[in-house]
Amino acid sequence: MTESVSSPVIVALDYDNADDALAMAAQLDPAVCRVKVGKELFTIAGPELVRKLVAQGFQVFLDLKFHDIPNTVAAAVRAAANLGVWMVNVHASGGERMMRAAREALEPFGAKRPLLIGVTVLTSTAEEELAPVGVGRSLNEQVVALARLTKESGLDGVVCSAREASALKTACGEDFALVTPGIRPAGAAADDQRRIVTPADAVRNGSDYLVIGRPITAADDPAVALQGIVKELAGN
Ligand SMILES: O=c1ccn([C@@H]2O[C@H](COP(=O)(O)O)[C@@H](O)[C@H]2O)c(=O)[nH]1
After folding, report:
1. Name one GO molecular function term (predicted).
2. Is 117 annotated as a binding residue?
3. Residue 2 pLDDT
4. Active site residue 65
């Protein structure tokens, strides 16, 4: 696995087959960006594809957002660590006992363990969608509360929108990693995302890692799109 990666970009390999994902990866440099395998690709291509990406030198974020009873989540996170991934995540709303079980499952991996991250509120969620699912707090309050719980449970950071990054650095400290999807270059379509931020603003707000899918993978030339984003960040 590449030890140092020059940009904070994590390219979301959201494809419905392994060949397309590997073709995209072939256009990427593991010294420049990381890659993310999510639910669609993992369901279709499974652990073999993850092993291939790791063998190619990529730091792989396995974005399966586990949410289950503590014993099941602990076992799933352990299985992810055995694949050699760099980062894995669980839903913070699974609660402290679930998150602590996941963290403890990684103890035997020592310094080689993946980063363990809690998902706060999905970047596709808008303020008005919280009340119907029983959340009475404001979106910002909910994100901060879940991030604090994630930190108290011993995890390394959270997934959030870069809109909340500054508040979370204040609430949880500089070392608490902020992983932010919902990144859109100026003028790009929001698609199904609701809390979007440009790459440069995300870094200015305090994001540590920028998860970017369609603005790169659906571009006419994905390598050029990535280069443009990396350049924008370098000028930051
Ligand atoms: O809150 C979240 C958590 C995960 N994601 C994932 O990130 C990418 C974003 O892709 P885009 O094409 O750049 O919108 C995708 O894989 C999501 O599953 C997220 O968007 N928001």
Report:
1. orotidine-5'-phosphate decarboxylase activity
2. no
3. 66
4. yes
